[in-house]
Design goal:
- By secondary structure, the chain is an alpha+beta fold.
- The chain has helices at 26-41, 122-135, 140-143, 146-162; strands at residues 46-48, 58-61, 68-79, 82-87, 95-100, 103-109, 115-121.
- The radius of gyration is 16 Å and the shape is globular.
């Protein structure tokens, strides 16, 4: 079990775009295992590689229906729109209402390097969009309404002070 430190808002790696995985090898398998262990330890529903400081297009999701491994995921279709409360492990699990597509279709690779198509709706669609955003350097605060952004920054500053860290 390899539990890694989850990077917190303010860490520059969270704003960087992850690079495409060219070869699925033991390093990628180990990365997926580290992501899975770290996500489950933090009781999260998903985790992207840059959240543990690795700039590769890899993420894992488990909303209670089994582990989904994403390698080079791309959204190819979005349908509908819904606003729901969303949280993020890189934001001390703070929540905010976020608009997302209600349904998505993605193409990703499996561990054998084969292209797989996934159609998702509801919580799974939301989790997929959230993790792909991470891989593109986009955070939930970027998708929050202006008033929600202000609330999140105020709350994050309180938490940073409590943890002995510098404010934003």
């Amino acid at each position: 079990m390899a539990i890694k430190k989850i990077r917190i808002f303010g860490d520059p790696v969270l704003r960087e775009k992850a690079s495409e995985v060219k070869k699925i090898d033991d390093k990628i398998v180990n990365l997926i295992n580290d992501l899975t262990d770290t996500m489950r330890n933090a009781k999260g529903a998903g985790l992207a590689a840059n959240q543990i400081g690795v700039l590769k297009r890899v993420a894992v999701i488990d909303i209670g229906e089994g582990l989904i491994k994403l390698i080079n995921p791309k959204i190819i279709k979005k349908n509908g729109e819904i606003e729901e409360i969303e949280g993020c492990l890189s934001f001390y699990s703070l929540n905010s209402p976020i608009n997302r597509a209600e349904k998505v279709t993605i193409i990703t690779k499996n561990l054998e390097g084969e292209e797989v198509k996934i159609e998702a709706e509801g919580l799974l669609a939301r989790a997929i969009q959230h993790e792909i955003d991470h891989l593109n350097g986009i955070l939930i605060i970027d998708n929050a309404l202006d008033e929600e952004k202000r609330k999140m920054v105020m709350e994050l500053n309180k938490l940073k002070v409590q943890n002995g860290e510098e404010k934003f």
